[in-house]
Amino acid sequence: MYEMLGVPFAIPMVYNPEIKERLMARSVIDLNGNAELLNFIYQNSQMGVDTLNQLIDIVEDDNFKKHLGTQYKEYREIHKAAREALNENGYDEKGIGALEKIRTYLMINLQTLTDKSASHIAEMLIIGSNMGIINAVKNLKKYKNAEPSIIDLMNRLLKFEEDNVQQLKEFL
């Protein structure tokens, strides 16, 4: 057990000496902020992957389906990058909980039960992306001292969400 700023903490079991050294050199606050920001990116991108995977099977418009496939690929890449960054820094991934996944799955099915149009689904996705944008901006401010590579990944996700909103407007 170590102590920093009067707060006891444990260094997780890390077998890579370079990572262990970096972990021990950082403050507890930075460790928590980096992990929390990476987990936000991980969860946000996981929600995108799961949602689009479900919607691609529901959507009937081929052009819209192709567009969703492109979004799906980028969410997957961001999700993978967040997972790799978490693992490289010795953090555990905290994915979306089972209840949240079930709730999202049911809400998508309910909201597309009577209207599977590209316009309606684009509206749903714009609302979700706007929520992601708001949370991304808040987290960038909250964790402004996070490692630059983590901030860059967060900015990549934020820009992607902002671009999604603009592109989805074409389908309204």
Task: Supply the key terms.
single chain; 172 residues; mainly alpha; Ferritin; 6 helices; 74% helix; disordered N terminus
Radius of gyration: 18 Å
The name CATH uses for the topology is Ferritin
Task: Kindly estimate the percentage of residues that lie in beta strands according to DSSP.
Answer: under 5%
User: Can you summarize the main beta sheet?
Assistant: 2 strands, antiparallel
- Architecture, according to CATH? Up-down Bundle
According to CATH, the homologous superfamily is Ferritin, core subunit, four-helix bundle
Number of DSSP-assigned strands: 2
CATH class: Mainly Alpha
The tally of domains stands at 1
Characterise this structure.
Helices cover 74% and strands 3% of the residues. With 172 residues, the protein is mainly alpha-helical. It has one domain (27-171): Ferritin (Up-down Bundle), CATH 1.20.1260.10. Strand 1 and strand 2 (7-9) form a beta hairpin. Helix 2 (28-58) packs parallel to helix 6 (148-168). The model is unreliable at 1-5 (pLDDT under 50).
